[in-house]
Amino acid sequence: MKRILYLLVFLLPVAASAQKLSESAVEDISTKMATQFLKLNDPALVFVTEQMSRSGAGGLEVDKTMQDLKKDPAALDAAMKFLYQYSDCNRQTLIANLRAMNVSSGNVFPLATYIVNKNKNDNKALVDEKNELYRIGAIPKQISVMVAPPDNQNQAAAAGTVLQGTPPANATGQAPAAAPGSSPAKETINTAANMPVDTRNWDVRNVFNMVKPDQLLEFYGKENVELRDAVDFEGNDAGKAWVVYPDTENEMEVIFYKDSTKSVAFSREEGKWRSPFGIKPGDPIEKVNKVNGKGFRINGFEWTNGGTVDSWEGGAMDKKGVMILFRAVNSGDPKLYDKYTGEKKFSSNDASLKKLGVIVEKVVFRTYQ
């Protein structure tokens, strides 16, 4: 019995330490990922960055996140998970990739152990997802260049330049039509099938990287952008907004603020835009719950800030500049609907919300650049 107790006393600290990385390892992997990211054509980091953007783990400005992962532990864990996914969830392949990134030899095995232990229950799902992403062309197998910020963000803002580089292919498997600074083509012709193919660039990250309206006009074409009056969630005057593809299913509203921040809003359910977290108008509240990783708090309908998220409750979208307005599709049951209206707040986990058919009405991303 004593031997068993001694063994437990010895093994428990070892098991605990396996779930925590040293500061040295965190600094090392963060620095090395940033270095590989800035090379612009590293296949592993293109994959990781694209997955960070698709999942929302990189926030609204994934380029900045990738250059200083140690500041965001959740983002660092996600980046390491996607590196593991890129390595086909194989420990030896992961170790080889860590070494190829020039991770210090003393940190390779602790990092590999941490990553494998943290994600081993998701091996099959991660491998299947990777295969599907490549199959549909959501992530290109052949890498040329990817988005990366200039060395000095302030210089870029002062010069009014757009971040250079072509993002990876979009979720439909089509490569971007143009690099920032040139207008995306309206359409091209597939001569083989004699059918029009939409090659417009639907990656919202292009907008997040802009600092002034002129860049929006140049990138999407003056003929596709209009300046209009804007309103907030409450219907109050919000100044002027630049509207891309106005009065179409792909309408996108962009407001540039004096402090160089901006808001990007969507309210059309059929839009093609690819944005962080994958949330779009028309999505059920259950999907938003899943993406956030936990329930969140919503303001009662038909009241001040009605139907908007009051707090993400520390979930994946907390403090990431994401604002969502919900509406109830099935509000015909007065007794049930009254439960969620007025001066109150309710949890997104409430089972009765499914009967109301609560969906996303509008999504707004507020960037900090």
From TrEMBL:
Keywords: Signal
Organism: Chitinophaga barathri
Region annotated Disordered, chain positions: 163-186
Keyword Signal (UniProt): yes
Signal peptide span: 1-18
UniProt name for this protein: Uncharacterized protein
Compositionally biased intervals (Low complexity): 166-185
